[in-house]
Amino acid sequence: MHKAIVVPSPGGPEILRWEDVDLPEPGPNQLLVRVGAVGVNFIDTYQRSGVYPMKYPFIPGSEFAGTVVAAGLQVRGFAEGDRVATAEGGGAYAEYALLDADKALHVPHGVSDETAAALPLQGMTAHYLVNSTFPVQAGQTVLTHAGAGGVGLLLTQLLKAKGATVITTVSTDEKEQLARAAGADHVLRYEGFAEQVRELTGGAGVDVVYDGVGKATFDGSLESLRARGMMVLFGGASGQVPPFDIQRLNALGSLFLTRPTIRDYLLTPEERRWRADELFGAVADGTLDVRIGQTYPLAEAAQAHRDLEGRRTTGKVVLIP
């Protein structure tokens, strides 16, 4: 037996239960990992609340880091004692979790479990957004939202490394300081951001908007784009965007709109390794800073969800078993 957070049915944070569950056994191609740290993500709240349908009961969490304690008979490339991380696991809100070996990432020496758990989902999200969904070029101007959030801080650093001008939005003075420290060129509040973006770009608009906020920012994001610009909606922290009339893309300047998800940008082992190696390498050599804003004991996952959904967090939220 071991301890885990269980979601018995759809509901609010109060539904989460801290319970004894059976210790899982690895299949032929799986690793059993002693969890060292868990990354908390909005998808966890969507699954808990029923926005994303799940089979209940279940143990939430897809992102974690830890140490291999057992490997399936057919596993190659990993062994007991190896440190691993993933954004593609399951049942991570637990003291032990199973992980398909082909979804495991080697954690370099010197990178802590907390940092390794904070990087995969948000880091690889930021990586695919700027390298693949809309490959940003030097000299382009980009708008990102939630500039002090986990993805936002990583996005800004990756965008500045590419030579882009970064405009971002935040809600408080404290968050503005964090966004500027990450390299943001212009930091705005959400109220009237589209008009301010137009002013900053001489009326032209930005080349691309990376929007993980969703419902509250969607219209303003579209209005911030230049002709033939791209709207990249990658999340819904403020709620899901309502049904959309695609003729608006025509009226606002032949815009592009895409709704990516990470699984479609990790289609091959080579792609996964490329993204992970670049990110972990940048962390290890000090060129990418992963800000862990809050840590909570795993048993207090409900409070972590409340704070995340209440927009009271900055950087990455991490649970520690």
TrEMBL record:
Keywords recorded for this protein, A-Z: NADP, Oxidoreductase
Annotated Pfam families: ADH_N, ADH_zinc_N
Source species, domain of life: Bacteria
GO MF entries: mRNA 3'-UTR AU-rich region binding; NADPH binding; quinone reductase (NADPH) activity; zinc ion binding
PROSITE patterns reported in the protein's UniProt record: QOR_ZETA_CRYSTAL
SUPFAM superfamilies hit by this protein: GroES-like, NAD(P)-binding Rossmann-fold domains
GO cellular component: cytosol
CDD domains: QOR2 (cd05286)
Enoyl reductase (ER) domain residues: 11-319
Protein's name according to its UniProt entry: Quinone oxidoreductase 1
